[in-house]
Amino acid sequence: MTDRWARAEERFRQREAERRYRRNDQAWEDYEDDTTVIPRYTDEDHDEVLAAERSRRAAQQRPQRAERGEPRRGRPQRDESAPPRRSRGDGLGGGRSGAASARSGRGRSERGGSRSEERAESRSERRRSAPSRGRRSRAASRKAAERKKRRRNIWLMGVLFVALFAGAAVFAGFKLMKMFGAPEDFSGPVGPLVVVQVHPGDTSNQIAEEMQKKGVVASSQAFFQAAVRNSNMNSVQPGYYAIPSHSPSAQAVTALLNKSSRVGNLVVSEGRQLHDQQDVNTGSRKDGIYRKIADASCVGTGTNQKCITYDQLDAAGAGADLTALGVPSWAEQRVRDVPDRSRQLEGLIAAGTWDFDPSGTPEQILKQLVSASARSYESTGLLQSGAETKLNPYQTLIAASLVEREALPQDMGKVARVIVNRLAANQPLQFDSTVNYALDRTEVATTDADRSKRTPWNTYAMPGLPATPISAPSLNALRAVENPEPGTWLYFVTVDKQGTTLFTESYSEHLRNIEKARQSGILDSGR
Q1: Where residue 171 falls among pLDDT bands split at 50, 70, 90?
Q2: How far apart, in Å, do the first and last CA atoms of the chain sit?
Q3: CA separation, residue 77 to residues 80, 432, 450 (Å)
């Protein structure tokens, strides 16, 4: 009997083990997640719940059986009609032995009935708890997947942080090496000259970057360090400089401060013309603007010197592509109508100091100068002038060039008024400066033959203004024409070599003033 109960108990334990750790395939089929994590069960929690449930159900069933008169399960029902069974101990002392056997049989019967109840309750509990186990299985799977996802995200964030930290460390190390290490610098020998521009307002840092860009120095840091050690860097002027390439930074700074390194710096005096002229009295050559540009374009010395020539500039200035020459739109049509193409840019390069890039072509150099001059002219209000004088911008420029050649600064407003009054009266201007413009050899006085020669510029031989400006006017001359001094003058003449000029509206008085000029010798001709 003992062995039978032991085997039954062993089978119960095996079924309980299979039930506890068996995977519910139906629950996993219902679960939509793709995780492969197997839910984890805790034996202690399950045993406590199962024991409590068994105790509760057993307590409920005992009173019900007692009321119905049902015998306990596992205990055989006695037949009242059968004679009582006696044990071998019946007799004198058999009462105790029989009673003991009865008690022992009842104990085994009660234990068997209790275990049968437990097995029935266990089967019923398994049927009831199957859906809840499925739900617990899906919830556990989701939690396991979430834990796995969190661990993966934490790992990725850690890797990213490590990578960022490593990159920052490398960058900081590189910056420290550049900060505390000597910057890259050339050690020589130097290379050919290159042209470097210093813009207005450039700082030492900006100049250093331009030097590195043009290949003068190996690094902007090296040039900047050399520049801050030289107090003369504050005297550097905007413009173009010829500096040897591949120079050590200290030598590059020294070369920049050397006045001989300045190139492309042009000074155009007031009243200067494009082409060279020769003075009748002295025989000396008066260099024109093209000659001045050619001299300023030279880069280098000796056999290595490179220059734009006078003839190259003259040919470029006669080109038909006015846009390539920088001619402003307000002058373009009148320039196209100029009878002599070599003089079409006359007056479009203003008097003043200019900087140009000498490494450019002749056309590029002329365009740079003409464009800068146009901006300078327009700054005076040229495009808005003419309401009172009835002159368009190009005509105003022509009149300003006449004022520049005929008057001293203090008389410019009066000479401008004479021009406006005579044009309004359709009276020839009769300026000697317009006669000299077309001559190779010039002087203050002119001959009757010169004045009678008809040219597009000779205002003795025709009314109105000349075909082009006759010189580079100053901004003061331009302002004088834009706003001429009020007056009724029609004539003026310079009566001495000091520049004294007399103005009048009477022709007879003008003839008397001319006589004074002759007596001073200013009108004597050298031809």
Answers
A1: confident
A2: 164
A3: 9, 161, 166
Does residue 185 contact residue 217 with C-beta atoms inside 8 Å? yes
Residue 288's CB is within 10 A of a number of other CB atoms, namely 21
**184 touches 219 (CB < 8 A):** yes
**Pairing label, strands 491-494, 501-504:** antiparallel
**Residue length of the chain:** 527
Could you please report the per-residue DSSP string of 158-174? HHHHHHHHHHHHHHHHH
How many helices and strands (H and E) does the chain possess?
Answer: 17, 10
Q: Please indicate, yes or no, whether the overall pTM of this predicted structure exceeds 0.70.
A: no
Nearest 5°: CA angle at 316, between 267 and 292? Answer: 20
| pLDDT of 100 higher than 50 | no
Look up residue 90 and give its two tokens.
């019946």
HSE toward the beta carbon, residue 403, CA cutoff 13 A: 31
Contact (CB, 8 A) for 218 and 287: no
Tens digit of each residue's pLDDT (9 = 90 or more) over 46-84? 556 567 667 777 776 665 555 555 555 444 445 444 444
**Cβ proximity of 74 and 117 under 8 Å:** no
Say what percent of the chain tops pLDDT 70. 75
Q: Where are the alpha helices (DSSP H) in 181-248?
A: 204-213, 220-228
Distances 181 to 178, 228, 419 between C-alpha atoms, Å: 5, 18, 71
